[in-house]
Design brief:
alpha+beta, 3-stranded antiparallel β-sheet, 4-stranded mixed β-sheet, binds protoporphyrin IX containing FE, globular, 19 helices, 404 residues, Cytochrome p450, 9 strands
């Protein structure tokens, strides 16, 4: 299914490489606008200004729980599908009090202090990957470094076998990509395989407990009413998906931005202590999550001069908001010392990214080690040959060939 009826064609392949000029027009001409997703034919509202995005993300009139929508709403119908149901009972698809209950169960594992304890292990994983890369001279940085690093970290944290990481990558890539020609088949198949995989892991942990988050969650589920069996599957699905689909593109987009701006790269090489501020600017400049997930209107809602009809969904474009000139002077300038830099690449409000401290640690360690160990790092292709992924959820490159 494909339609070109949109006044602003965000999904067009030529827009994907750089959606920013189109977002600038949208912010000016139609800051809250109804579009039709060409892949599904379903309408979706898009918010592109920084202040509007923040307002949307803290507006409790909207719901994340599609079961609360009027019958017949597309989002509710989708959730009625058995596979979707198996994977959709998680905190990012819940409102308080369910959201609070689910988030609290795992939040302790992701606090800055707990995450700091992972520093030696993240460093060791990054060094192992760099050792393996060194002899090769030219690699796809996403395949050899940016993907396996966060995937290994989240798999170890949860207690999921790291050997299975290529299967997760296939499933999750399919799950976050738009359907090709409106065909939901591959997405449903990937969802089913992922759900079955999680089920089999849980079955094993029930009989062979270990010292990991998976075992801890299984025991919470077994204790009674705090976590249902479906919520347990949803939790693992969300953590595995969010734990790596995003950080891979923080590293990938970050390296890309540095290689496009040699003077910033030199500043960072000369002063690695700038890494934390550089990571914030990478998140702002080309954040890995282009748009949030949907919030829905359970009844007609007036929002910034528009009426969002009951059952329809709204997205904030985080990439657009983080380039709003009212919030960020010269937003197109990549400045690794930008201050202040209150970007919303991790979202805002109650669904603010649970993994932000982990992603920041992984990003800072990975990038500094990469620059230290590969002093001649450069693109192995012409920048114009790089291709970006389809869809408006994840903003990342398909491949990042580099030489060193
Ligand atoms: C650079 C990397 C990352 C970025 C840019 C990112 C971005 C985001 C964003 C924008 C949201 C909110 C989505 C919305 O409101 O619709 C979110 C939520 C979430 N993220 Fe991340 N994320 C990253 C890494 C991680 C990691 C490493 C984890 C590890 C566990 C994680 C776990 C989560 C979870 C569980 C939520 C849902 C929180 C809730 O509903 O309360 N993320 N993330």
């Amino acid at each position: 299914m494909s339609t070109n009826s949109n006044r602003f064609d965000l999904w067009a392949p030529q827009t994907r490489a750089n959606p920013l000029p189109l977002y600038a027009r949208m912010r000016q001409e139609a800051p809250v606008v109804r579009l039709v997703d060409p892949n599904t034919g379903v309408p979706v509202w898009m918010v592109t200004g920084y202040k509007d995005a923040v307002d949307l993300l803290r507006d409790s009139r909207f719901t994340k729980d599609s079961r609360k929508l009027p019958d017949g709403s597309p989002a509710k119908q989708l959730r009625a599908n058995a596979i979707q149901q198996a994977l959709s009972q998680h905190m990012l698809m819940a409102d308080p009090p369910d959201h609070t209950r689910l988030r609290t169960l795992v939040s302790k594992a992701f606090t800055p202090r707990r995450v700091e304890e992972l520093r030696p292990r993240v460093t060791a994983i990054a060094n192992e990957l760099l050792d393996a890369m060194k002899a090769r001279g030219e690699v796809d940085l996403l395949d050899t470094f940016a993907f396996p690093l966060p995937m290994t970290v989240i798999a170890e944290l949860l207690g999921v076998p790291v050997e299975d990481r290529d299967s997760f990558r296939d499933w999750t890539t399919t799950l976050v990509s738009p359907p090709v020609n409106g065909d939901m088949g591959p997405i449903q198949k990937a969802g089913m395989q992922f759900a079955q995989y999680i089920q089999s892991l849980l079955t094993r942990r029930r009989t062979e407990p270990r010292d990991d988050l998976l075992t801890a969650l299984v025991s919470v589920e077994e204790q009674g009413d705090r976590l249902s069996p479906t919520e347990l599957v949803g939790m693992l699905f969300l953590l595995l998906l969010a734990g790596h689909e995003t950080t891979v593109n923080l590293i990938g987009n970050g390296v890309w931005a540095l290689l496009q701006h040699p003077e910033q790269l030199e500043r960072l090489r000369a002063n690695p202590a700038l890494i934390e501020s550089a990571v914030e600017e990478m998140l702002r400049y080309r954040g890995p999550v282009e748009t949030t997930t949907q919030r829905w209107a359970p009844q007609d809602i007036e929002f910034h001069g528009q009426v969002i009809p009951a059952g329809e969904g709204v997205l904030a474009s985080l990439l657009a908001a983080d380039h709003d000139p009212e919030q960020f002077p010269e937003p197109e300038t990549f400045d690794i010392t930008r201050e202040p830099n209150r970007h919303i690449a991790f979202g805002f409000g109650i669904h603010f990214c649970l993994g932000a401290p982990l992603a920041r640690l992984e990003g800072a360690l990975a990038l500094n080690l990469l620059l230290e160990r590969l002093p001649r790092l450069r693109l192995a292709v012409d920048p114009g040959e790089l291709r970006w992924r389809d869809g408006i959820l994840v903003h990342g490159l398909r491949r990042l060939p580099v030489a060193f």
